[in-house]
What we know:
Layout: E1 3-6, E2 21-24, E3 27-33, E4 36-37, E5 42-43, H1 48-65, E6 73-80, H2 86-94, E7 103-108, E8 118-125
Parallel strand pairs: 6-7
Antiparallel strand pairs: 1-2, 2-3, 3-8, 4-5, 6-8
Amino acid sequence: MKKKIITTTQAPKPVGPYSQAVQVGNLLFCSGQVSIDPKDNLVKGGDIKSQTKLTLENIKGVLTAAGGSFENVVKTTIFLKRMGDFAHVNEVYASYFLNDPPARSTVEVSALPKGVDVEIEVIASL
Length: 126
């Protein structure tokens, strides 16, 4: 199967040699998103809830560009700088996955790109 590169201005430009998302058949593999504002490509800090919201909005932009939505997401991976933020991330996350939430893994990591506190990647079936 041929791969299709998904690119949108509704999510930040990649900060390295990767694509925002790659579609192969009906599967969409979205690169991890962080709290970078796609309008100016600058990291937006704030508390973990605001970082999570912007991260999920960036994912929404990629999903929309591919013709999908959060309803198409089948798997997510959340990377947290501090597992103590889990409940706050969960609160925001739940507001994006209202029905039949996807499978998910959450891991604590020692550092994330651009010094952010959360990164989320998704796989969707379109």
